[in-house]
Amino acid sequence: METRTCTTAYAFPGDQIPYRTSTMDPNQRFYRHFLDSVAVIQDQMSQLESLAAIGGERQAAIDHVLAEIAKLQNEVADAAEFTPAYDRRQYSEAIKLIQDQLNQTIAKVTPKSRFQFKRSSKTQHVDMGSPENDPRLSPGSLSRNGHNRGPASPVATEEADTVGELPPKGKDYNQEMARPCVSSVRKPSFSTAKNIGISGQKNIHIILPSSAAHATAAGSLTNLTNCVVDMSIPTAEGSPFPGLALKNISSSLIVAGRVNGPVHITGVTDSVLVITAHQVRIHECSNVDIYLHCGSHPIIEDCAGMRFAPLPDTYVTEAERASENQWDQVDDFKWLKAGHSPNWTVLSDSERLRDGVWKELVPGKPGASVEETLKAVGIPRV
Fold it and tell me: Could you give the number of structural domains in the chain?
């Protein structure tokens, strides 16, 4: 088979990855996408020195580059189904070089008196080609012991609120939300955070206000029970999440907002989810209704009782109206027989929630308890 290499300003370590001159298969298409993404990230890094340090312009650009690297790592993880181990090792090495370049650029443009970026001693570069680091073993991360930030990502030692490794003095929004309150509705500002991480909550209604619009560099919701969470405002007024992880959630209503990249959903039961994303992967979930706008086929694995519906009109923007929605083109990776998988179905029109739920209850209807709101959306499912 005749192969050729693609010339680009970026060179992979070792041999370049060949591609066929005929119609590209998914692996080849991803290779081209990866090269394009690398070129965009490198262009963004080259502009950092020209940006103003005063006013936060440069730091915002650094945060954006970090988010793009994390997004690319997630895309490599999602491509594990159709990329050989050798290719994944090449992608992993390429990302490592980008991270090293970013560290060097940051060290050059950032005054040492304010910032000192270093590679975290707790994280190591992950070989995506190794079987023990198969991303499918831990959805949303790059290895069994990986972090959502990705392997060997630059870590700021300046005080900040982040998901994952919080600085010792960082504000703990989860502790703040868990405190006793007269109202069941919590509106954590996330005003000093860069990422949104909500975990370990029970029986509360969480609404993220517009002050959290700048904190969407990454997002995760974990270990929630009997909760209502609405993240639609920050991702509509600010930037969408580059990626989002939902894990270990039960009997809850989650309005996840907009996500430009992949959403990984693991261990969710008896819940209702509202999601706008480019890609959705669902693992080990049961009895979940998903109102969805998805740019690719949703993927389920080891799931049962999944019901899908299109995104409610309340959350549809011009961007969604202009793009294809593949919400009902679900692929079940554990159903290899002919015919429709019994693990998912389309939610009928009569079973879909009415507009009043999204416009009145989810934004926090005065006097409505968490239990009343969950009951109105059919949680638990009868």
Answer: 2
Q: Which mean pLDDT values do the consecutive 10-residue runs of the chain (382 residues) have? A: 39 40 67 82 80 73 84 85 82 86 80 49 47 44 39 37 38 84 83 87 92 85 95 86 92 94 93 94 96 94 96 90 92 85 95 91 86 91 75
Q: 81, 80, 71: which is closest to 36 by C-alpha?
A: 71
pLDDT, mean over the chain: 78
Q: Which of 108, 143, 171 is the last residue of a domain?
A: 108
Per-residue pLDDT reduced to its tens digit, 49-73: 777 777 677 787 888 888 888 888 8
Residue 14 tokens, joined: 């070792």
Give a three-class secondary structure readout of 141-159.
CCCCCCCCCCCCCEEECCC
49 and 194 assigned to the same domain: no
What tokens appear for 321 in the block? 């109206």
CATH of the domain at 39: 1.20.58.1250
Read off φ and ψ for residue 227, nearest 5 degrees.
Answer: -120, 155
Domain residue limits at 30: 26-108
Q: Are residues 254 and 345 in the same domain?
A: yes
Nearest to 14, CA basis, from 123, 102, 99, 129: 129
Q: Return the residue matching tokens 């895309």.
A: 75
Please choose, from the candidates 303, 293, 364, 359, the residue with its C-alpha nearest in 3D space to the C-alpha of residue 328: 293
Rounded alpha-carbon distances, angstroms, from residue 269 to 28, 225, 230, 250, 347: 36, 10, 18, 5, 17
State how far the Cα of 58 lies from the Cα of 50, in Å rounded to an integer.
8
Domain with residue 343: its CATH number is 2.160.20.70
Whether 316 and 203 share a structural domain: yes
- Structure pTM? 0.59
Residue 280 lies in a domain: yes
DSSP string, 335-370: --SSS--TTEEEPPGGGSPPHHIIIIITTT-TT--H
